[in-house]
Design brief:
About 25% of the residues lie in helices and about 30% in strands. It has about 110 residues and is α+β, with helices and mostly antiparallel strands. Strands 1-2-3-4-6-5 form a six-stranded antiparallel β-sheet. A hairpin with a 2-residue loop joins strand 2 and strand 3. The longest helix has 14 residues. The protein is globular and about 50 Å long. About 25% of the residues are buried.
């Protein structure tokens, strides 16, 4: 089915002034705060990377893979999307708990 760009834009705009940005990824979208990927949009659903901080917001009963073969993530129920303060706090707590990504190696010259 895939996630529409309209859905991703709605979510990013709804959470302003949080600087959430989306990047196309494998036909879906990765959601970033700063340089950390905190969530994935897949089939019109929001999946947040699991962390102990995130589990405090959404119990582990919400763990499931975003797509077949994926690691489990915390699926945010659709009715919670409009709870701006809750969702913002959830994403900020997740971002704080994730490690800083390793720097990418520069591409070798051709």
């Amino acid at each position: 089915m895939g996630t529409s760009l309209k859905t991703v834009e709605f979510l990013c705009e709804a959470l302003l002034p949080l600087e959430l940005r989306a990047r196309p990824m494998f036909g879906e979208y990765g959601l970033y705060l700063g340089e950390k990927m905190v969530a994935l949009m897949s089939d019109e659903q929001l999946f947040v990377k699991p962390t102990p901080a995130g589990a405090a917001f959404l119990g582990e009963e919400h763990l499931c893979p975003a797509y077949p073969g994926a690691k489990p993530s915390l699926r945010v129920p659709d009715e919670r999307w409009r709870e701006k303060a809750w969702l913002t706090a959830f994403l900020v707590a997740t971002e704080a708990a994730l490690p800083v990504p390793k720097p990418k190696k520069p591409k070798a010259p051709k």
